[in-house]
Amino acid sequence: MNAPAEVASLKRRRGRPRDAALEARLLTSCLEVLAEGGFSGLTVERICERAEITKKTFYLRWPSAVDAAYAAFGRYISVVEFTDTGDAVADVLRLARQLIEWFQQPVMGQCYRFILAETQVRPAYAAHLLADVTLRRDRDRAELAAAMKRQGLPGADRADLVLNAVNGVAFNASLVWGTSEADLDYLVRALILGEPFERANETLDSRG
């Protein structure tokens, strides 16, 4: 499958000087339009109107509204990453809360949902985004596994499962179901300790 036009365009125009402020305004406007109406409402006309630029200016940079949307999302996505501070339970809880906040962002969070759905029918467009996310995820998994092993916690080989569960809960919490702080705490403790849920809090307390 061929790469998206946006990727090819970047390669062709790598040496072309650009107005950074104008391009930032264009891409920001693109994300705002996408967040408001999804891909069905994403048009070059609406992007240009929001950014106060001409279509000619737009097409000098991107071949389509969809190409611009994926480029904008890739540039401005603020990926939440796992940080090891010496307490795996607290660190994963912090990661979960940060993910919930990110998914609830009115522009980027909404764009993420549209991008995720659109990727099912435009897989080539998401290839470069997926490659970056995979690298970050591999780093997070390695750091979490090392932290759990260093802290003497069981199930260091389940770090990927922990991250999958936390991401899934955070995403669902940003939709219509939500999640309580108590439930989030309960889930993370059970995942990290690798024991039955009903014993998670008791075991953590006994560890001091």
UniProtKB/TrEMBL annotation:
Keyword Transcription regulation: yes
Keyword tags: DNA-binding, Transcription, Transcription regulation
InterPro entries documented for this protein: Homeodomain-like_sf (IPR009057), HTH-type_TetR-like_transc_reg (IPR050109), HTH_TetR (IPR001647), Tet_transcr_reg_TetR-rel_C_sf (IPR036271), TetR_C (IPR011075)
Record bears the keyword Acetylation: no
Domain HTH tetR-type: residue ranges: 20-80
DNA-binding region boundaries: 43-62
Protein's recorded name: TetR/AcrR family transcriptional regulator
Organism of origin: Novosphingobium bradum
